Amino acid sequence: MNIVTLLPFIVLIGAMFLMTRSAKNKQRQAAQMRDQLQPGTGIRTIGGMYATVKEVHDDTLLLEVAPGVHAIYAKNSVGAVLDDAEYNRIVHGIESEHDDDAPVVPDDASSLTEAEGDDDRRVDMTKGDAADETGAAGAADADASRPEDADAKPEDRKGSGDDDAK
After folding, report:
1. Strand arrangement of the beta sheet that strand 78-82 belongs to
2. What is the CATH code for 38-96?
């Protein structure tokens, strides 16, 4: 056989080998992570629940999901083993000491959008009564100034809010 005809098969077998190798590495790392579990370790399950390991058995774990609430889970349900700082930050809201050099992000965007000197001017976004009266009078004047309506009787003219149903 010619090497050109065998080349697609060789590439296919090589790709399958690489895919299975990376999958085996991930499985090996997950098994190592599960074997290193100890009581007191904070974990996240594959379902997204955070808990503390209380007891470790062959294939199962006893987890404390809330104070005084225990549940038995399979070891395969562990999605990640968290270090203490991350677990406390997520579950208890305890922030670890952070660098003072880190940029401070404001809680709202008002400090980012305000320009100096804009504090004096405020835009009134409310509808005023004067604007409503002027708008209604202007619409009536515009209806009367149309040439096709000039010959019509006042009762035949349609106002801005009238409809065809009578």
Report:
1. 69-74, 60-66, 50-56, 42-45, 78-82
2. 2.30.30
pLDDT tens profile 8-18: 899 999 999 88
d(CA 116, CA 114): 7
The C-alpha atoms of residue 81 and residue 36 are separated, in whole angstroms, by 9
Q: What is the pTM of this model?
A: 0.47
Distance CA 67, CA 42 (A): 13
pLDDT digits (tens, 9 = 90+) for 116-136: 555 566 777 888 765 555 555
- The tokens describing 44, both together, are 């996240």
Q: Is 76 helix (H, G, I), strand (E, B) or coil?
A: helix
**What are the backbone dihedrals phi and psi of residue 38, each rounded to the nearest 5 degrees, phi first?**
-135, 155
Any long-range contacts for 121-125 (C-beta under 8 Å, 24+ apart)? none
